[in-house]
Amino acid sequence: DQQVKQNSPSLSVQEGRISILNCDYTNSMFDYFLWYKKYPAEGPTFLISISSIKDKNEDGRFTVFLNKSAKHLSLHIVPSQPGDSAVYFCAASRTGNQFYFGTGTSLTVIP
Amino acid sequence: GAVVSQHPSRVICKSGTSVKIECRSLDFQATTMFWYRQFPKQSLMLMATSNEGSKATYEQGVEKDKFLINHASLTLSTLTVTSAHPEDSSFYICSARFPTGDINNEQFFGPGTRLTVL
User: B98 and chain A: CB distance < 8 Å anywhere?
Assistant: First the structure.
């Protein structure tokens, strides 16, 4: 049973525009969320996190929004750059426990 | 950020042989390490949680006798795929949980190991 879902397997965005990646989860006990970026044949790289006590966290061009009532989080990248092209995974956990990952969204930023 | 290494990065082996993959936290002590497996175009699936000095906790459906995990020190966990078969071919990734501080729930991932069983 997939507790974390990313319903868009791929996304293409023009350079300079905003990229919005979405993630839904089913377990209301999750209280910590992460976004990872992954290039082919490499391990995931941590991007940004958010705890359930917040609804927004910003780090440079990356902002994560959390809507607990909808069990939804999103990652905004603005402005998008060609180097952002990668697969993005969202992950969720209950504090101290293992993470559950979404299936990933492949982002392509077109120059 | 913290660094986690994995060795080897790629391994090709014959069916029936065993393969050992090492995961090391290079600049911090990790009491907990995780082993994930990723099939093509699928999400990372947690295989087991490895705690230093104790037995690993395996996820449902993961054969503990086939995937042997040893976490003998605070900086090293190993995954041994015993009697490997072609269906074990996959990308194996470890992660180490940072033990303290604001990022105490954050995991740092290794670069992964591509296993191909012929």
Answer: no
Which residue is closest to B43 within chain A, CA to CA?
A: A103
Q: Which of B46, B105, B109 sits opposite A44 (nearest CB)?
A: B109
Phi, psi of A110 (to 5 degrees): -90, 125
Smallest Cβ–Cβ distance between A101 and the set B1, B43, B112 belongs to B43
The full DSSP string for B11-65 is: EEE-TT--EEEEEEESSS--SEEEEEEE-TTS-EEEEEEEETTSPPEEPTT--TT
**Residue to substitute from A4, A94, A101, A103, interface B, most B β-carbons within 10 A:** A101
Structure-token match 């470890």, residue found? B94
Q: Give the pLDDT score at B78.
A: 95
Instruction: Provide the token pair at B15.
Output: 């069916």
Average pLDDT per block of 10 residues along chain B, 118 residues long: 86 96 89 86 84 87 93 91 94 82 65 92
Q: Which of B41, B49, B112 sits opposite A42 (nearest CB)?
A: B112
Cβ distance B16 to B1 under 8 Å? no
How many helices and strands in chain A, by DSSP H and E? 0, 11
The confidence score (pLDDT) of residue B37 equals 92
Which segments of chain A have a pLDDT < 70? Answer: 1, 95-97
Bridge pairing between strands A72-77 and A62-67: antiparallel
Partner residues linked to A34 by β-bridges: A49, A91
Residues in chain B: 118
Q: Indicate the SS3 state at residue A62.
A: strand
